[in-house]
Description:
- The chain has helices at residues 20-35, 54-66, 82-94, 105-113, 130-138, 149-156, 196-206, 221-232, 262-267, 272-278; strands at 7-10, 39-44, 76-77, 98-101, 144-147, 160-163, 173-176, 186-188, 211-215, 238-242.
- By secondary structure, it is an alpha/beta fold.
- Glutamic acid binds at residues 11-13, 45, 200, 214, 218.
Amino acid sequence: xxxxxxxxxxxxxxxxxxxxxxxxxxxxxxxxxxxxxxxxxxxxxxxxxxxxxxxxxxxxxxxxxxxxxxxxxxxxxxxxxxxxxxxxxxxxxxxxxxxxxxxxxxxxxxxxxxxxxxxxxxxxxxxxxxxxxxxxxxxxxxxxxxxxxxxxxxxxxxxxxxxxxxxxxxxxxxxxxxxxxxxxxxxxxxxxxxxxxxxxxxxxxxxxxxxxxxxxxxxxxxxxxxxxxxxxxxxxxxxxxxxxxxxxxxxxxxxxxxxxxxxxxxxxxxxxxxxxxxxxxxx
Length: 283
Ligand code: GLU
């Protein structure tokens, strides 16, 4: 099948070594791009400088090349584009859709603690009055920028996104956006200055991504990302969420599964051909 102009990307964060699950994700995108005669891009999501390490970035380039993947050079590194994310943040602020949140993590948890299934992400707060805000700013208190979700949803109106794969409950096709689960999501962190969702939508648009191929763990994130695209006037890619691989303990593969890192597999004599075949791709 040839899909004209197909572009996808693999977007790892260099916070640890890549494991089999990453390999599956990258190979899925790579195979899609190849089948469509399209483009496969690599993006290093390294804005969280509290967790990202240069040695993990070096390792991921090496591991992906070992796996037999080829991506357009150079890979996009998010830390090279911080001004663009700030500009997008500024646009949302100018639209009156952001507010400063001075709450600590504990205060946020306390605020949602009484809610059933209270989740950190589901926090809904409020804009401070001008006098209180001015005095806290003058005192140099750190703050995060949060999206005023209700106002953002009203402005954007009803939205949908195209799921070409499957969500965790089999969701497929044109799906209505319901960003409520994300709450007043943080778009600029106190410590890091920017947050994941905003950087992802800016970069998916910048890179002309037509289909986002990624694990099902990010399915819920799509709702808020689609909302941000609409607010910023960015094009909406299609999404193809794939199942997550599980580790020997039956739980989803994660950094704790050291034996499943591409490094460890390679050290134990695994060849890229054998790994590709095991993951269901032509060796
Ligand atoms: N950087 C994210 C991660 O490693 C993936 C972002 C995405 O694919 O949208 O989990």
